[in-house]
Each structure stands twice: as C-alpha cells, then as structure tokens.
Q: What sequence folds into this?
C-alpha cells in the first residue's frame, strides 16, 4: 500500500513555504471559498502526473516573483521509503529525482504514486465536448500503466507532424496538394497514425468494457436506485479500419489542412437508462454520474494494479446535497484520502486530521494522531505569503510552528532540497542537490521496475 506521509512546497503557486504531514486515512482541509484549499491537492496531483488537474500551464506552478518552485514528497510504498523531488523553472526542463536519482524523462515518474481526483469541474465529462471524455479515458489508461502514456505521446506527435504537413500543402494550394514528395511523406505519416492510432483505440475500447458494469454499481452506491449506465465508444472511422478511413478522407484533409479522422476525433457516448446523459439527465443526475465515473475508474485501477490510488476530493462535497454527500463518503474505498470542502465536514468523513483555512492561515481544528501513531503530536499552524490569489496556503502538522527558510536555487543543473534530518522544529535552509551524496536513500522504484505492474 502506498501512503503519502509528507509534502513540502517552496514557491509553489502562492505558497512561500508549506510543510504538511498526512493522516493514513482521511485528511480534511476546510475553509471558505477563495482561500486556496485546492493548491494542496494540485501539488499532490503534480507530484503524481507532472501536470495540473486544473489544466494550468507549467509556469503557473511557480509563485509570482519567484524563479522556481520546489515540490518534495515523502511516501511509504509497502514499507519502502520513496522520496520524490521536483524543481519547476519556467522556460526550462523540469528536474525530477526519485530517491536522489535523476529521471531522464518525466513520464518515468508515472506509476510511482497514483491519484484519483474528484473535482467540481468534472461535470464537463458529461456536459462538455468529446475532448473531455477522451481525456477521462486516457488519464485512466495512464493510471493503469505508464506505457499508455508513451502511446499517448506518440499519437500526439504523429498527429502534430501529419497536421503540419497538411497545413503546408493547403497553404501552397493545388500545387502543394499534388506534390509527389509531399504525398509520399503523407503516406509515411498515415502508416504511423494507423499503427499507433488503432492500438490506442483498442486500449480505449477495452477500458470502456471494464468500466461499464463498475460505473453502474458505483452510481447505485452513490445515488441508490437501479439506474443503468451505458458507455459506448463512438469512433470517427468505420469498422473497415483507420487506413481506409484516412485514404477516403485524404482529399478533405488536404483541403482543410487538418486530420479529420482518427482517435483524436472519437467520442464516448454516456447513457442513463438508455437516454443520452448529456441532454436528458438532470443536473443532479449528471453530477452523480460524474462521481460514479471517477469512482469506477478508481476501482478499475485498484483491481488492475493491486494498489489503491490516493483519493483527492477537491471541494466536491460542497456541490452535493446532504444525502449524496453521505452516500459518496460511504462509497469511497478505505484508502488514504485528502479532501477540501467549503461546507460543514460530515461525520461520515471520519477525518483523522482536520485543518481550517482562514485569512490565508491554516490552523488545526482537532489534534488527531498523524499517520495512525497513537499519541501523535497535534498539527502545527503554517502561514504562507500574503499574496492575494485564488489559491493560497495549506498546512502541515508538527510539534510546533515549522518554517522553511532559504530560497530555492536558481541553478539550472539541479533542484534544491529540504533536509529532513534537521530538528523537526527548525528545517535547515534549502541546499543544492548536487551537494548530496550520490548514493540513494532507498532503491529507486523507477529503476527497479517496481513502480507499476
């Protein structure tokens, strides 16, 4: 079982410095809207996927006026300590280290820690366009196995190259569309698109087949009743295959300068009791169905990998009535969970640690035992900077006021680090990782192939 024990942030979003320890069960962060509760969850998600689940660009991760952002996560992975350190520098390649070993590719981090994110914006999975539903599927595929990210990246690369070629031909007019050299190059990219595209579509279809019965059960767990959920893959090309579809669409593609068929044009039809959920379901039904889709993906990933992803609930409780809140919390699996809410925290949450965000300060509401250790110290109060923004500080536990000092290094050769061997009440200044011993603190799960099944 993977557990996030501690997260340290320097100049991430609006955090000047934050140090948080998490309960092995539920850690709750409560507070009014606009106080920045989501920043903590976004940081956890970034450590897992190297992207923001809110869709923000990389440069937005760095606090205004800072040169870089540092994220440092300590995890317990089936009894093995894992340390993830990330330095984000706008305009430069992000630096990642796992147990003090540098990763050459960001996708090598995938699978070290998995997350399932529930967010209010998830409603677009039902109400939004095809791209939202494709992203839901593709993100779940990546959670199942990191190799799916490589296939996803290859597909994006091939489409980008093919579209650039088509655009160039369109600009040149009839001369470009009839250029033998260009047409020969287009044949090459068509073959590559067929190879990776059909493989990716097959993976999507297989995932949908796994998800459908699980979504129906998850909806029953959340909303009750006997509603039936149907999910259908809607392909942009016929059953004759992608190669035939590309050949048929070639003239149109050359005229328009874009690829009009392929996995990037596909959709997922979601039906509730044989009626399109997007147009016929009520707002409440759509919200319950969205939660069921997220819960189903979590269950499928857990079953396939043998490891329950970390649950991140970003203020979804505030969007639900009391009955659905209670039902959702009862339906959640018994795994580590971090949730934020602007509403009253239901008793069913059974939070082991609770913090309140108010006026950009975080204070413990209770003094639970952190990490399940009897008699643990009460969480501390952590302050952030005074910048006004939609996302502000979150807190961390500890035996007393805890502060990170120093500024992240501005050296492009490596990220900075916070020394956890320091006295718990006073962290050492940030130091350059190049000064650290080369031997890792623990085996690298990426290098040993243990990060994902």
A:
């Amino acid at each position: 079982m993977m557990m996030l024990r501690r997260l340290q942030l320097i100049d991430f979003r609006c955090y000047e410095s934050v140090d948080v320890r998490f309960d092995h069960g539920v850690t709750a962060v409560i507070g009014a809207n606009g106080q920045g509760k989501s920043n903590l969850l976004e940081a956890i998600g970034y450590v897992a996927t190297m992207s923001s689940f809110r869709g923000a660009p990389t440069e937005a991760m760095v606090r205004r006026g800072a040169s870089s952002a540092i994220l440092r996560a300590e995890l317990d992975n089936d009894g093995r300590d894992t340390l993830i350190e990330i330095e984000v520098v706008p305009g430069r390649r992000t630096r990642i280290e796992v147990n003090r070993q540098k990763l050459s590719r960001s996708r090598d981090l995938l699978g070290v820690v998995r997350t399932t994110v529930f967010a209010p914006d998830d409603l677009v999975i039902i109400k939004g366009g095809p791209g939202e539903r494709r992203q839901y599927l593709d993100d779940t595929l990546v959670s199942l196995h990191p190799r799916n990210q490589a296939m996803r990246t290859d597909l994006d690369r091939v489409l980008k190259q093919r579209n650039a070629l088509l655009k160039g031909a369109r600009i040149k007019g009839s001369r470009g569309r009839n250029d033998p050299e260009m047409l020969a190059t287009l044949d090459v990219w068509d073959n590559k698109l067929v190879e990776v595209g059909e493989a990716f579509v097959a993976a999507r279809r297989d995932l949908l087949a796994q998800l459908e019965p699980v979504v129906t059960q998850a909806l029953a767990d959340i909303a009750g009743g006997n509603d039936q959920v149907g999910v259908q893959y809607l392909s942009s090309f016929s059953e004759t295959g992608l190669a035939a579809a590309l050949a048929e669409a070639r003239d149109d593609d050359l005229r328009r300068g874009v690829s009009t068929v392929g996995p990037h044009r596909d959709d997922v039809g979601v039906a509730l009791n044989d009626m399109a959920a997007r147009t016929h379901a009520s707002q409440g039904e759509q919200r319950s169905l969205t939660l069921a889709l997220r819960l189903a993906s979590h269950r499928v990933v857990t079953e396939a990998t043998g490891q329950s992803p970390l649950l991140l609930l970003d203020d979804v409780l505030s969007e639900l009535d009391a009955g659905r809140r209670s039902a959702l919390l009862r339906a959640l699996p018994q795994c580590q969970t971090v949730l934020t809410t602007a509403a009253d925290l239901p008793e069913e949450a059974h939070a082991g640690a609770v913090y309140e965000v108010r006026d950009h300060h975080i204070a413990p509401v209770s003094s639970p035992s952190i990490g399940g250790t009897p008699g643990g110290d009460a969480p501390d109060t952590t302050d952030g900077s005074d910048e006004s923004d939609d996302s502000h500080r979150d807190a961390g536990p500890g035996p007393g006021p805890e502060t990170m000092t120093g500024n992240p290094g501005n050296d492009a050769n490596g990220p900075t680090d916070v020394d956890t061997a320091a006295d718990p009440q006073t962290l050492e200044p940030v130091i350059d990782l190049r000064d650290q011993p080369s031997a890792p603190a623990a085996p690298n799960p990426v290098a040993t192939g243990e990060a994902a099944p």
In short: The two ends are 13 Å apart (CA to CA).
